[in-house]
Amino acid sequence: MTKTEKINAAIESGAAEARELVKYLYDHPETATKEQLSSAAIVDVLRRNGFEVTYPFMAKELGYDTSFCAVLAHGSGPKVAVLVEYDALPGLGHGCGHNLHGSLATLAATSIMKLRGEFHGTLMVLGAAAEEEDGAKLVMAEAGIFDDVDLAIMMHSNGGSTTPEMDTLSLRAYKVEFHGLSAHAAAGPWFGHNAFTAARKFLDLVDARRDSFRPGTIYSSVMLQGGYTPNQVPDYASLRLEFRSTSLSGLTELDRITRNCARGASLAMDCTEEFTLLSKDFYNMVRVPALEDKVTELFRARGERVDPVVPAYASSDMGNVSYHCPAIQPMLRITDAHCALHTETLREATLEPLAFEQMKKGAAVIVEMALLIFNDAEFRAQVRAEYEAALEKVNRKL
Fold first, then answer.
1. Tens digits of per-residue pLDDT, 319-356?
2. Where are the beta strands (DSSP E) in the chain?
3. What pTM was estimated for this model as a whole?
4. Would you state the pLDDT for residue 398?
5. CATH number for the domain including 209?
6. Which among 242, 277, 312 is the end of a domain?
7. Number of domains into which the chain is organized
8. How confident is the model at residue 134 (pLDDT cuts 50, 70, 90)?
């Protein structure tokens, strides 16, 4: 058998099991940090296929027990990490397709296990829980889990097109609180300091700065608390806000602007402001041309049309991984409908016949990428050189 025939056979032998996993995760959607059934189902598949699994993994560091780490150590050599996502969205279930591409990554991992006679090295399969919130990859990356990895790879479900990479924006999230002084709104409002007005003026000031934001900036906010009754001057108001940038340096600049706007609004209303970071920062993606070119080549060899990478419009904890090792997250077409992520359309597409066929195709590409890293020293060196050059360029912008 040729290498391609062996890969195809390994994929086909696990396809039915992976399809059952897609449906199980769909039927049991669990939100971030609560993925008990989902993580256990994936771990069961990995163990049945011969993996040694640590489960839970890094529970103390993460603050929850739904991540795992499965390892296949087959002699000395390079190290590849395959990342598995499986959390759902509140009220929407798997509207981001994690049930499909989490099962895809699991299928790729079990297929590599079946092909272990074809390489020497270590495969690490990481259960990346809570991607929709804090993101396990954020903590894992900070802890150094990826520092000795030669390739970290996963694939993300998409509507309408396949692209070799999901470019990402850096992201920071805050809770901003304004503290004032209560007073009767009719009998003595002059005794009060209106925290709600300070919050509103803060947003006005941010809006006034939008015309000077750098391209690619996204700024979003919601009011959490703005008072209790109209006849009382609000002494407390709070917001949740997120801002995104194409670089970490842009994130730092947005942070400075945000704090100045909050301080200005507080000074005007005789209030004070308080910032609470809601999660670790999400980083933009360090892109590696050699990886993107090879993914494109492999998809096209399997008859898949590959479109150019679109400008970054979202954030992912995969970006943080990419600051520690060469990493890639292709977007895989699971439906011909051009639909956004986090939609019912994408959720329902995960159960369609096309999605299952694309799952096998995507899993095969992950397997081929892993085998290239394990076996092709020249390609591995090219990836490392291009990655280090890209990382240096990104770091110069910090």
1. 999 999 999 999 999 999 999 999 999 999 999 999 99
2. 52-54, 69-74, 79-84, 121-127, 151-153, 156-159, 170-179, 218-225, 236-245, 272-277, 327-328, 331-335
3. 0.92
4. 52
5. 3.30.70.360
6. 277
7. 2
8. confident
Region of 227 (left: φ > 0; alpha: ψ -120 to 50; beta: rest) is left
Beta carbons within 8 Å of 61's beta carbon, 6+ residues apart: 139, 143
pLDDT in tens, 241-269: 999 999 999 999 999 999 999 999 999 99
**Rounded to whole angstroms, how far apart are CA atoms 123 and 56?**
18
Residues 265, 199, single domain; the answer is yes
What's the first-to-final CA gap in the chain, in angstroms?
49
Residue type, 299: F
Strand order in the sheet with 79-84: 52-54, 69-74, 121-127, 79-84, 151-153, 327-328
Q: At 52, list the tokens.
A: 């040694």
CA gap 29, 87 in Å, rounded: 7
Predicted confidence (pLDDT) per residue in 167-223, tens digit: 999 999 999 999 999 999 999 999 999 999 999 999 999 999 999 999 999 999 999
Q: Are residues 62 and 147 in the same domain?
A: yes
Domain of residue 134, residue span = 3-168+284-395
